[in-house]
Amino acid sequence: MSFPTVRARRTRQTDLWRRMVRETRLTPDALIYPLFVIPGEGVRHPVSSMPGISQLSVDEAVKEARAAAEAGVPAVLLFAAPEQKDARASAALDPHGLAAEAITAVKSACPGLIVWADVCLCGATDHGHCGHVLADGAIDNDSSIQTLAQVALNYVHAGADAVAPSDMMDGRVQAIRRALDGDGCAMTPIVSYAAKYASSFYGPFREAAESAPAFGDRRSYQMDPANAREAVREVLLDIEEGADLVMVKPAGPYLDIIRRVREAVQVPVVAYQVSGEFSLIKAAAERGWIDERAAVLETLTGIQRAGADLIITYFAPEVARWLRSL
Ligand code: PBG
């Protein structure tokens, strides 16, 4: 059968028809909102490359988290940019460090909100790399995963509901799982940044998290954007090591990866709409070149249609408000 018997437009005639046959439905339940925490009190320091996003002192981060929760966002992802940066990532290991303090404060102010803590060394090291750096400039995988496991344990003890390692060292999920299980935290999930690409779209984030590498780049640990099969391998390895959720990052330029991962695994798939993806939309909208709300909803729908169960996005509270008013 074909035209004129068949007419695809029949079920597109009215808004009600379109709503009924819609295949992908965005809901606030799928959104996670990232927050950047800095030292101080009463500080909201705008990130120049991310309009509307600020680095926040702990008290302000609590306010922002509360507002997100009130908008219907179920979870936040915390990043800390501590003042003290050294080779050992001491601030991340400190039980009273900035990240731990922020986790405890947000969790006690908003007990119903799920708090994910990003686990990495880049924000707390003087060289800005995600692992320990050897004398020759190489990244020392095996000592890094020991430190990352200690950092994760520190954050869980501070109150984190889940830890999200974003360093891309080999074996870190296993090291973290062992550390948590060995210390009475067997029920804390690990959200693994499993397929994280060495992307140009992280540029604005590095201003927000003060985590740009002082030398070199991250291509010896983050994935080559040209590779897709390798993403499936990374994800399967992380699940074998104990990852409870797996992430693909960035999201928009990697929809094929989200789809492949979705088809390869049975755990929830998270996609991270990263800072560069956020800022592109903001910049075009500021110039009147694009309808911001429509563009945001379209990108998130596309990410979900590709197979993501959950989406980390800087638009989360706004989107939750839009979805509620639809
Ligand atoms: C740090 C980290 C990065 C992002 C999340 N965790 C940056 C990087 O790897 O350089 C990027 C997030 C974004 O761009 O929004 N390991």
Query: What would the CATH topology be?
Result: TIM Barrel
Q: Whole-number radius of gyration?
A: 20 Å
- Looking at the overall shape, the CATH architecture is Alpha-Beta Barrel
- What is the CATH first-level class name? Alpha Beta
Low-confidence runs of at least 5 consecutive residues: none
Average of per-residue pLDDT values: 97
Furnish the topology, listing elements before pairings:
Layout: H1 15-20, E1 31-37, E2 44-46, E3 54-56, H2 58-71, E4 75-80, H3 90-93, H4 98-109, E5 114-119, E6 132-133, E7 139-140, H5 141-158, E8 162-165, H6 172-181, E9 191-196, H7 203-209, H8 229-241, E10 245-249, H9 255-264, E11 269-273, H10 275-286, H11 292-306, E12 310-313, H12 316-325
Bound molecules: ligand PBG.
Ligand PBG binds next to helix 7.
Task: Describe what this molecule looks like in 3D.
The chain is α/β, with parallel strands linked by helices. The chain is 40% helix and 16% strand. Strands 1, 2, 3, 4, 5, 8, 9, 10, 11 and 12 form a ten-stranded mixed sheet that branches. The longest helix is centred in the middle third of the chain and has 18 residues, at 141-158. The protein is globular, with a radius of gyration of 20 Å. Residues 118, 120, 122, 130, 166, 202, 205-206, 211, 218, 274-275 line the site of ligand PBG. Ligand PBG binds next to helix 7.
